[in-house]
Structure to design on (288 residues):
């Protein structure tokens, strides 16, 4: 539903939202769709929340190379909002023009794919998605500015790297805010069972998140942070909980090669394997 009119599909409603800032309201139901956001900042909101509003991408309605449940790839900004949906059943998208999915000819972003775009993704459930490459639940690459992941549950997703989510900034001006999310039961064949963060950012907030029962075949069962140097003054790694995550080689809870955190405080780690400071490998400042 948009501007008082109703549409049979969510995609039709998105396409009908003509002006930046328009809101598409999604009524309760299960929608077998793979959504592509138009080239403007819109808000997509469920009227009843994720338990009653499900977008199921398993049918690959946009073709076998476009099986992400939700794609934003037209330069959208943080003013684009996705709120209150369950996004499930996606198998990722592949485009040979998009490098960086880690496995040649592989798919990225089973549930959500942001390519050279940004958004506010809040209070959703992203579950049961897969990607052969990076970001089983969520894949973000080259965002033009801020990306916000706030209050989501990212659960039971799988990928080669970044089982739950993978965020690749590749731009020193990028900003990422990952706050109050739950990463649960995700799996990566290599690194970053729950979350993989890579490359440079101006600043990052990783605060108040819960990582539990995630697994990685090599490093960082809960979280892996690679190749990163945070150049701003607001980078914070604080108030996160890592419980019962596992990695095949090292860093059951956290594996990090990132530098430049301005604040590291009040993180809780327990029951992660390998143990070693409750599953931390990398910067020992994380062992608090």
């Amino acid at each position: 539903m948009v501007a008082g009119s109703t549409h049979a599909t969510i995609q039709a409603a998105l396409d009908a939202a003509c002006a930046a800032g328009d809101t598409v309201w999604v009524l309760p139901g299960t929608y077998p769709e793979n959504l592509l956001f138009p080239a403007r900042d819109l808000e997509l909101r469920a009227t009843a929340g994720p338990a009653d509003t499900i977008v199921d991408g398993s049918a690959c309605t946009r073709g076998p190379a476009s099986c992400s449940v939700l794609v934003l790839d037209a330069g959208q900004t943080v003013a684009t909002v996705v709120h209150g949906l369950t996004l499930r059943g996606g198998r990722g998208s592949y485009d040979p023009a998009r490098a960086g999915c880690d496995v040649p000819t592989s798919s990225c972003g089973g549930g959500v794919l942001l390519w050279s775009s940004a958004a506010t993704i809040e209070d959703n459930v992203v579950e049961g998605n897969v990607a052969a490459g990076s970001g089983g639940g969520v894949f973000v690459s080259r965002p033009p500015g801020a990306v916000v992941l706030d209050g989501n549950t990212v659960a039971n997703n799988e990928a080669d790297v970044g089982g739950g989510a993978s965020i690749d900034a590749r731009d020193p001006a990028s900003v990422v805010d990952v706050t109050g999310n739950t990463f649960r039961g995700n799996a990566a064949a290599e690194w970053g069972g729950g979350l993989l963060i890579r490359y440079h950012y101006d600043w990052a907030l990783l605060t108040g998140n819960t990582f539990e029962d995630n697994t990685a075949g090599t490093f960082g069962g809960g979280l892996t942070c690679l190749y990163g140097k945070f150049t701003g003054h607001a980078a914070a790694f604080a108030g996160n909980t890592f419980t019962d995550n596992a990695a095949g080689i090292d860093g059951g809870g956290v594996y990090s090669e990132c530098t430049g955190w301005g604040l590291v405080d009040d993180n809780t780690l327990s029951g992660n394997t390998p143990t070693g400071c409750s599953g931390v490998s990398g910067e020992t400042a994380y062992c608090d």
